[in-house]
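Students often ask why we bother predicting the structure of a whole assembly rather than each chain alone. The short answer is interfaces. A chain on its own may look different once its partners are present, and contacts between molecules only exist in the joint model. In this exercise we take two input lines together and write out one structure for the complete complex. Read the inputs first and try to guess which parts will touch.
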Amino acid sequence: MAIDRSTAATATPLAFLPKSKLPAAVAWGGDAVRYVDQRELPTEVRVVSARTVEELVAAIASLGVRGAPCIGIFGAYGVALLRRTILDDVAFATAAARLRAARPTAVNLAWAVDRVLAADDMLAEAEAIHREQEAVDAAIARYGLELIPERARIITHCHTGALATGALGTALGVILAAHRAGKQPTVFIDETRPLLQGSRLTELELREAGVDAVVQVDGAAAFVMLRQNVDLVIVGADRVARNGDTANKIGTYSLAVLAAHHGIPFYVAAPRSSFDLATESGADIPIEQRDPDEITTIRGTRVAQAQARVFNPAFDVTPHRLVTAFITERGVLRPPYGESIR
Amino acid sequence: MAIDRSTAATATPLAFLPKSKLPAAVAWGGDAVRYVDQRELPTEVRVVSARTVEELVAAIASLGVRGAPCIGIFGAYGVALLRRTILDDVAFATAAARLRAARPTAVNLAWAVDRVLAADDMLAEAEAIHREQEAVDAAIARYGLELIPERARIITHCHTGALATGALGTALGVILAAHRAGKQPTVFIDETRPLLQGSRLTELELREAGVDAVVQVDGAAAFVMLRQNVDLVIVGADRVARNGDTANKIGTYSLAVLAAHHGIPFYVAAPRSSFDLATESGADIPIEQRDPDEITTIRGTRVAQAQARVFNPAFDVTPHRLVTAFITERGVLRPPYGESIR
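Now the answer. The structure tokens for the assembled complex follow.
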């Protein structure tokens, strides 16, 4: 189980392999904002053009566009588009406010809309927001790349790719960088119940990028560590507390315990914006319980009786002592996290 | 996480609470063999009467009846029924041979059919086979009961109940015995991907029996151990090697590691017939890879692209050092298993 391969890879180029064949998650289209409709994935990869405020709002509200950074970029381009198509100032302000409120819990959306509204050249500002996200993801990938051995065998969980951030992705960005640098990673993807982001999104992104990837049920991760010579686990984060405790998709804590048991490093790739210095530890993070239907039905098909009781936490909290390192756009953070995170 | 409740429960009665409202998995019906059609579960609980050799064979071949002991009991009653309805000896022998071959991999089926064929009173022999299974399951439940504290909080995986054994069940039998003895267990059921036996079958059996039970995704087990004060894990076994290494549904090994990490006992309930003394250790158990469609589709609904590569082992192997004890019909086996199993 020991990693006996060199991790010195600072000189490898970042992109000598072709990029993904998938269309961009979000893009400026001149007279529209283009996006991949995520509700159709993975059965269909469909690029949709949103031209009116109704179409922009519907794309966000229906979860056609999802992932906090991705929604922010979409909203930014959306405002720039509306400014070009709605000449009346009052009508434009009303439309921008509707777009800003399309998904109240998405703080990135309101932040991005406000930033674009305050700019003289709105399209340039939207493009700047997109470029900044790309720069953050690229920096995470560059720092993370050095932690990935040649021919690394990796387990990842949930989805942390382009369809979520609108750029390279976080944990998936590190894997894609390793692939483009010719390190030939093999990735075991947890399907990630209940919402199956692993089998629906991560599998698609990795395969389209040419990465060697296989999907497994979440319960198989331990056995894969034992029998498949896994080198490392890498995941994203919803929120990191000041002490390094990490909230992420349900199943992450399990992976962290299993990695520790098998002597495998457990990495968390997350931008600085995910670190919440106002939260002291994981004990201060409330656990959201989600709809039981996510477990009793799968994409509309019933798999348990409707009367079944369900325990469906949206995420879990991994104690900081199980995290080998955090990979951020400013560098790799090691314990003690109380200091390195500050 | 420590268990501070009494485990002394030898004097508690086994059955002062009402039994399950579910119909029997298999039963003699006079002019038919009755069974619960497991393909319809959990959406519909339908009792079917098989009267002809065609209906008996179809019930087994279509997986309407499943679970090795359950198939054996069904086959035993089936032969007894055919002897009553087919007067011609040659025609009867042909029909019995067809029934015996309905599912070639089910060794219990051939064994039970042969045993009934060799008996003078075929129905009495079939009933004896059924009663013997009930006695085995009851003995496992009785020994297991003593390991279950009052108000125990339990995690279980897959399905080990009446629908599989035709009697009380193994791990589920222990839980049901604890419930009937008034110990008021709470059970967290792993849904058990890929085939969801936990949410489809275990949930149904426990709820119909009045047990406090909730379903969770497999990835939630670790977080449930950490935050929900879990007392123990109990599972069944497909096959136990001479040294105690245990093959069981994929996800079992993960649970065992997580239980060890949290200081929680990990019990395996299995009849003597599951102990394979010819297999020295888990390394000698070949791992069957199952159909990728089990992961890329769920009950006919596509959840990953058809081109997705899949790693789908049917079961995993838990090293004996992670098993706190085996619960058998002859008593509770403790380490060192090399001795106790022999």
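Check your guess against this: Residues 1-16 of chain B have pLDDT under 50 and may be disordered.
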